Amino acid sequence: MKKSNPNPNANRNILRLAYVVAGVFVCMLLYLGYFLQFESGSVINNAYNPRVDLLAERVVRGELLSSDGQVLARTVTAEDGSERREYPFGSLFAHVVGYTGNGKTGIESLTNFYLLTSHVNLVEQVFNEFSGVKNLGDNVVTTLDVRLQQTAYDLLGDRRGAVVVMEPDTGKILAMVSKPDYDPNAIAENWEALTADEAGEARLLNRAAQGLYAPGSTFKILTLLEYLREHPEDYGEFRFDCDGTYENGEYTIRCYHGEAHGSQDLTQAFANSCNGAFAQIGLGLDKAGFGELAEQLLYNRQLPLSLPYSESSFAMTAEADTWETLQTAIGQGRTQVTPVHQTMITAAIANGGTLMKPYLIDRVESAGGQEGKKFMPSAWGELMTAKEAADLTEFMRNVVATGTGSALRTDAYTVAGKTGSAEFETGRETHAWFTGFAPAESPKIAVTVIVEEGGSGGRAAAPIARGIFDAYFSGN
Amino acid sequence: MTTLILEGSKYLMTFLMIFYAYLNFRFFGERYDIRKLKLCRRQNVVMFLIHFLGYLSLYISRGEDRILVFYGAQVLFFGLYLVLSRVFYRNISRLLLNNMCLLLSVGFLMLSRLNMERAVRQFAIVAVAAVLTWIIPFIIDRVWQLSRIPWVYGGIGLILLVAVCVAGTTSYGAKMSLEFQGISLQPAEFVKISYVFFVATMFYRATNFKAVAATTAMAAAHVLVLVFSKDLGNALIFFLTYLFMLFVATNNWFYLSAGLAAGCGAAAMAYQLFPHVQNRVAAWLDPWSDVADKGYQIAQSLFAIGTGGWMGMGLDRGLPGKIPVVEKDFIISAIAEELGGLFAICLILICLGCFLQFMMIATRMQAMFYKLIAFGLGCEYIVQVFLTVGGAFKFIPLTGMTLPLVSYGGSSVVGTFIVFAVIQGLYILKRNEEEDEKE
After folding, report:
1. Rounded Cα–Cα distance for residues B223 and B158 (Å)
2. Residues B175-233 pLDDT 10s
3. What's the gap in Å between the CA of B307 and the closest CA on chain A?
4. In terms of Cα–Cα distance, which of B190, B208, B210, B187 is closest to B198?
5. Shortest Cα distance from A31 to chain B (angstroms)?
6. Which one of B247, B248, B296 makes the best mutation probe of the A interface by having the most chain A beta carbons within 10 Å?
7. Alpha carbon B55 to chain centroid distance?
8. Which CATH architecture has domain A209-359+376-475?
9. Exposure pattern of B402-416 as b/e (b: 16+ CB <10 Å)?
């Protein structure tokens, strides 16, 4: 009964286009499904998402736990139903765990969504709905180690500065201390004083991740690496005669406190942190190549770090003049680095050149202790070759064995590291640095210490690292 | 207890919506009219149930009596519209009619939750549009001269667009509306229809090179004026629709591929010329690096959809108000947030179902004129749905279009009513013809 169709082509084309459109829509809906199932969790856990706080009306914020299960933060519900966030360790974990109330920072902010999501069993949830009781939010187990954090915190004492402790082969951050600190339990009461900051202390600033410092002699690791790359065959023949000051035309570079190191090969120059030797090395380097190396080691780049951080900067260009080149080679000049970034470089050396992404959250558990999401170590990429990492390790061992890192000389374990004393303002004490790892032959932890205006790295920063290594190896 | 009702109706609504979408696609596979009729009756029941549960939740949550009054008015409207449409036009497509009502009811529900005043205003416009557009199928059936006045369609359309370009008011960087005496109109929503009529009449008369050249010139003029008004979303809709209509009318693959190539070239040029296009593309590629500014809209939309998850937060229990222009461009995100991702997916499938119905009608029309009209209007409809929804999901860059029948916006909803009425007119025409033949 059907009439013959006068436009068979048109109809075929209409159907073709309809199929294409349907196909595109199917793709779009699959994309939405993928987003809902796999991506939404990490997307909505964002400080700019105002919705997460809505969850707080239905869920009691979960606990933050140290790696061995000690409570770092918990919510206490009073009899009248009001809630208060309690930090049992006070200011010990102030920056890294963060606070809630006046905004959120640290791990409190990173894990906001997990803490406000409940995975208690369904029966209990329905029962809670009926009785109008809030469900218990999930707990988050961090990678933080209370004993190491406490050790670093005590050793830093009243001095300003920061300590970062990380596992090179996993990227787990075991401790992160920043001083001066604040009491997160009293953040609301002290808010005005803290933000007004009349003393210029910047107590709220997490110096470990956001503090930018001149790297001082710790930067010689990069200068050395560039030199090794440019002189793969003959670096063993390097010699420098140090009389305490290095002169180049009108410029003078002095070794720390004008100490004369005498005749130095490359290993000795690095171990003794001889500025003259490294200034001379710096002048001979290919500046463009040096810049590339710095960027390979994450200067001027985003770090794979979920906490807020400052970007380290390496400002020397290929056109830099002699003075800037001399300064840059010994870690002065315009170069700036954060302690956490320095730790990542050191950890990569310890881990055969491969940088593991630093992370703070080990796993999420329901209030009943059932394991939920688990975070696994993941590699970020290679900062250098395994051979280069092994060579640098050897140089850094000698810093401790024969050079400025004498505070870490012990029979219990071998440390590879580098000290630094960074000038930042004429007439003031230098910032004291130490960065290193142990045991040198099979590294377990990497440590970076900075003590603001602490003086010499070997005397002020290295002993703190020593204490942390001691605590770690006596405990395990 | 309140939470239990709210939670319960949330799950029930999602289930009903899935069932509705299922019926919608079952319809295409059904051969017998009696079964189709049964499916459509079920759809009506399901629609009223969803509508009821939605307003029940909203009433429980807000406790405002005006919600009940508004709900009553809507039930009355939908009841009358469904019944009277069938009284006036025995052969109306019930599936299309049902889908229209479902999309409207979900739109009303979401608008009531977001902004009661706007919802009421939208409802009033819809009621008037519904009554006025009842005449359209009648006209299509009787007035055969419609196919003889291409330059009237083309001329009126172009004049309106030029008027917007010259005297229009700017919102979000684009000139889109004309204002007089407090009433704001978006002529592009109506020009969309005259434009399809223009192209259809032109190609109905001839598809030789000369006709193609003349039509292309006029279509290009439409698109260019839209580009000058920076209304790039509509420009894209007009462009694609013309290209597809040209392809269907001429069966010429060269036109299609050359047109698509030219379109890509034009898109690249638009990217170079317009900073706001660059911003949109940047925000699409990575909204997270600039969440506070450029990526704000899309990030808020994704937060809404993500927080809602598959099942949604429950009506009135999310924060869709945090998304800028949520009633217009991001209504689908608000739906996904509170009614759930599954609900939103079903809603989009129903939109796709409408489009497929348009295409079926297009293939069944004998005259090229009617065929092209059904096809062209269908293209405009689905491209717009795609731009809105894809933009809100970050599937494609944002263009800032409304979701027809669901989003807030008078011109948009009236224009869509006309489009659906025209399609219904064609369907009725065809069915009447078939009945005549049988007798």
Report:
1. 10
2. 788 888 778 889 999 999 999 999 999 999 888 999 999 999 999 999 999 998 988 89
3. 6
4. B190
5. 7
6. B248
7. 23
8. 3-Layer(aba) Sandwich (3.40)
9. bbbbbbbbbbbbbbb
Separation between Cα atoms, residue B343 and residue B79, nearest integer Å: 23
Q: What is the least distance, in Å, from the CA of A126 to any CA of chain B? A: 9
**For residues B292 and B299, what is the distance between their CA atoms, to the nearest angstrom?**
9
Q: CA of B314, closest CA in chain A: separation in Å?
A: 12
Q: How many residues does chain B have?
A: 439
Mapped onto helix, strand or coil, the DSSP state of residue A317 is: coil
pLDDT digits (tens, 9 = 90+) for B366-407: 889 999 999 999 999 999 999 999 999 999 998 889 999 999
DSSP B254-295: HHHHHHHHHHHHHHHHHHHH-HHHHHHHHHHH-GGGGTTTTT
Where in chain B are the domains?
2-144+278-438, 145-269
Rounded to whole angstroms, how far apart are CA atoms B327 and B406? 9
> What pTM does this model have?
0.73
Q: How many CB atoms lie within 10 A of CB A248?
A: 15
Domain ranges of chain A: 209-359+376-475
In what helix (H) or strand (E) does residue A166 lie, and over which residues does it extend? strand A161-166
Chains A & B: contacts with CB separation below 8 Å? 124
Q: Which residue is associated with the tokens 């960087």?
A: B173
Q: Chain B partners of A6 at a C-beta cutoff of 8 Å?
A: 366
Residues in chain A with CB shorter than 8 Å from the CB of B368 are 7, 10
User: Do A22 and B307 lie within an 8 Å CB cutoff?
Assistant: no
Q: Which of A27, A40, A116, A128 to mutate to test the interface with B (most CBs of B within 10 A)?
A: A40
